[in-house]
Amino acid sequence: MILGICGSPRKKATEYILNQALNDLKEKDFETKMFTVRGKTISPCKHCDYCIKNKECIQKDDMIEAYSLLKKSDGIIIASPMYNGGISAQTKGMMDRCRALGAEDIDILKGKIGMSIAIGGDRVGGQELAIQQINTFYILNGIIPVSGGPFGANLGSCFWSKDSLDGVKEDEYGFKTLNKTLKRFVEYLNKYKK
Ligand SMILES: Cc1cc2nc3c(=O)[nH]c(=O)nc-3n(C[C@H](O)[C@H](O)[C@H](O)COP(=O)(O)O)c2cc1C
User: In Å, what is the CA distance from 13 to each residue of 33, 45, 81, 82, 152?
Assistant: First the structure.
């Protein structure tokens, strides 16, 4: 199963693009599932270390559903809007809460395949840094990060929304980066997950 995580609290550009990616994968016969932070309660990690002792998070909020999906997934796509030149607080909050997954089993996410989608209101609004933040999360957790490769999607998929849904739909270059990154994501899934 491929899990798409949408780090935007709105049903706008990020959710639209992530859905496009998941629909493409569905057409290629992958089972997909979207988890969005929209309308969810996901509190930040409190570093209480309850998880280290008890192998589960003390905070019983909507992250419980995400934990179960993360465990079941073969591949993960994290899509985040740019907030202050990097990923949204909601995306980072989910990443930090994954400390409890590692406490349960340090290798729990190891060997899954990960790709990134970064969407900014500006053409150059922090997308590359955001992708590096996501890829760092992947590497820290043993997830294999995938880029789209040179000549178009060096680190992953980047979009320019001009702060609107219509804007992101017009970003032809963004779709090029998405298609290139999805192509490699599928290659890696077929190579390592079948
Ligand atoms: C708090 C905040 C900070 C933002 N900072 C940036 C930024 O640093 N760079 C950028 O390109 N866009 C920035 N934006 C714009 C959003 O990234 C952009 O509108 C994006 O399309 C939002 O995704 P959504 O449509 O899925 O909600 C910011 C928006 C908000 C609300």
Answer: 18, 27, 8, 11, 20
